[in-house]
């Protein structure tokens, strides 16, 4: 076995709570989201994990989740790399809209296609495949080398940027990954083999 990769979707954000499409909008965590991030840290601490390096997106909800986890682990000053490639999927014209209002404007079926298809982007935005096109190269060239050298790596990011990563790690199809639900603040621990394949996976549910 090689190293350990821990993926965490940020805690609940203010726009998750309001049922709005968020995407690249830089909204904060709710009180519940801050608690979820702290709880994630406690669960990782109970597993005896500590990190060698952390990666997060350009958006504060992911950054604050990462920092809360590291604070709980007593690793507040750990090197943390912020990278736009790990940002949430860009929802384009849907950003900032209430999901119910979007359904009224474009229809239930069309909004469902934009939200849950693999390769159909919303107007002015990204599909999950588009999101993967920026996540995968960054993972392969920058994050994966740390894991394969035996390091323990934290990635705190977003539902869709993490879906793209999980798709690559587990060899899932587009159809499979769009059905994959990721709860906020729940760490997923992957232990990788030296050839980058997954040796084991553990989800630390609350």
Automatic annotation (TrEMBL):
Catalysed reactions listed for this entry: (2R)-2-phosphoglycerate = (2R)-3-phosphoglycerate
Site feature location: Transition state stabilizer: 158
UniProt-listed Pfam families: His_Phos_1
GO biological process, one term: glycolytic process
Residue stretches spanning the membrane: none
Functional pathway: Carbohydrate degradation; glycolysis; pyruvate from D-glyceraldehyde 3-phosphate: step 3/5
Gene Ontology terms for molecular function: phosphoglycerate mutase activity
Keyword entries, A-Z: Gluconeogenesis, Glycolysis, Isomerase
EC assignment: 5.4.2.11
SMART domains xref list: PGAM
Catalytic-site annotation from UniProt: 10, 88
Family matches, as InterPro entries: His_Pase_superF_clade-1 (IPR013078), His_PPase_superfam (IPR029033), PG/BPGM_mutase_AS (IPR001345), Phosphogly_mut1 (IPR005952)
Residues that, per the record, bind substrate: 9-16, 22-23, 61, 88-91, 99, 115-116, 159-160
Function: Catalyzes the interconversion of 2-phosphoglycerate and 3-phosphoglycerate.
PANTHER family xref list: PHOSPHOGLYCERATE MUTASE
Stated family: Belongs to the phosphoglycerate mutase family. BPG-dependent PGAM subfamily.
Subunit structure: Homodimer.
HAMAP family in alphabetical order: PGAM_GpmA
Protein name: 2,3-bisphosphoglycerate-dependent phosphoglycerate mutase
């Amino acid at each position: 076995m090689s190293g350990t990769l821990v993926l965490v979707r940020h805690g609940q954000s203010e726009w998750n709570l309001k049922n709005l499409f968020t995407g690249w909008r830089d909204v904060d965590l709710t009180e519940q989201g801050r608690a979820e991030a702290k709880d994630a840290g406690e669960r990782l601490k109970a597993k005896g994990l500590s990190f060698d390096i952390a990666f997060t997106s350009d958006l504060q909800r992911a950054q604050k989740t990462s920092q809360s986890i590291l604070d709980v682990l007593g690793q507040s000053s750990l090197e943390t790399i912020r990278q736009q490639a790990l940002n949430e999927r860009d929802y384009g014209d849907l950003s900032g809209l209430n999901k119910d209002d979007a359904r009224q404007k474009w229809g239930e079926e069309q909004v469902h296609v934009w939200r849950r298809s693999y390769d159909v982007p919303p107007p002015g935005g990204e599909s999950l495949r588009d999101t993967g096109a920026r996540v995968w190269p960054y993972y392969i060239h920058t994050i994966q080398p740390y894991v394969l050298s035996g390091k323990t790596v934290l990635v705190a990011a977003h539902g869709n940027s993490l879906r793209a990563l999980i798709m690559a790690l587990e060899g899932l199809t587009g159809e499979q990954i769009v059905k994959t639900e990721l709860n906020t603040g729940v760490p997923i621990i992957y232990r990788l083999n030296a050839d980058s394949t997954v040796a084991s996976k553990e989800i630390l549910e609350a």
